[in-house]
Design a protein that fits this description.
By secondary structure, the chain is an alpha/beta fold. Among the domains are: 96 residues, Flavocytochrome B2, Chain A, domain 1 (Roll); 72 residues, no CATH class. The chain contains 12 helices and 6 strands. Strands 1, 2, 3, 4, 5 and 6 form a 6-stranded mixed beta sheet that branches. Strand 3 and strand 4 form a beta hairpin. Helix 7 runs antiparallel to helix 8 and helix 9 crosses helix 11. Belongs to the fatty acid desaturase type 1 family. One of its GO terms (cellular component) is membrane.
């Protein structure tokens, strides 16, 4: 969320309901690229104009168009008091009193389990334990002669801002590790990883399970897609061509194309210099 959003939709006159009061059914309708609403703590916001200016990227916030974004909003914004003021220009109303606070499409019983177990609480990882854990991974990876594995886990922890108490140090080390040791873009990783944690394991929304049309996840779906010739590949035989396509395409081709796309779409010209310089060496 942020300042500068402009309201493009208003409540229609003579619609038979009070102005600024909406049902979940109405909210669900506003999920297109040019018309996006979402709900945070029962408040309804029009984010259509704000998505392109969202600091976390338009794709992250757009994942919740037409849905309840309360949990994601809380998880991604540590300083809620600071971002609350940015919501005001986007506010268009609230849910009707008869509407449930939770999106009816959500599993309420599962949500209760998460809350009771304290899994929704934000916790700062102890600096000493994080450093010890990172050190152990480093030593293990070096013994395995695979420093890139270690660098991958290190950049992940720093990217989550979970090592140092001050986020600035986490950002600095994260850019160094992923840029100079992994040869990738910190901005690209953040862009994809934010989407992953926004919609984990949701097909077409979580990039970590997006196989770019080359593979299909699951035990039944690949066979069905292959026999019925759905999409592009003979997915019922993907276990045979996986090792021929995945290793040579994933890092040299797919990841670099994604980095270029992120660089151009988000205009992050500086971060691209790190992987380019490393490959030049």
């Amino acid at each position: 969320m942020g300042v500068g959003g402009q309201l493009t939709d208003t409540v229609e006159a003579g619609s038979g309901r009070d102005a600024g009061v909406f049902t979940w059914e109405e909210v669900h309708k506003h999920c297109s690229r040019k018309d996006q609403w979402l709900v945070i703590n029962r408040k309804v916001y029009n984010i259509t104009q704000w998505t392109k200016r969202h600091p976390g990227g338009s794709s992250v916030i757009s994942l919740y168009a037409g849905e309840d974004a309360t949990e994601a909003f809380t998880a991604f914004h540590p300083d809620l008091n600071f971002v609350q003021k940015f919501l005001k220009p986007l506010l268009i109303g609230e849910l009707a009193a008869a509407e449930p606070s939770q999106d009816p499409n959500k599993n309420v019983s599962l949500e209760i389990i998460f809350v009771n177990e304290g899994l929704r609480q934000r916790k700062m990882v102890c600096l000493r334990r994080s450093l010890c854990s990172s050190a152990s991974i480093w030593v293990t990876s070096c013994c395995w002669s695979d420093v890139t594995v270690c660098a991958g886990w290190l950049q992940h922890d720093f990217g989550h801002l979970s090592v140092f108490k001050k986020s600035g140090w986490n950002h600095l080390v994260h850019k160094f590790v992923i840029g100079h040791l992994k040869g990738a873009s910190a901005s690209w990783w953040n862009h994809l990883h934010f989407r992953h944690h926004s919609k984990p394991n949701v097909l077409d929304k979580d990039p970590d399970v997006n196989m770019s049309g080359l593979f299909v996840l699951g035990a039944v779906q690949p066979v069905e897609y292959g026999i019925k010739k759905i999409k592009h590949m003979p997915y019922n035989h993907q276990h045979q061509y996986f090792f021929l396509l995945a290793p040579p395409l994933l890092i040299p081709v797919v990841f670099n194309l994604q980095i270029l796309r992120t660089m151009i779409s988000r205009r992050d010209w500086v971060v691209r210099c790190q992987p380019m310089r490393r490959r030049a060496l």
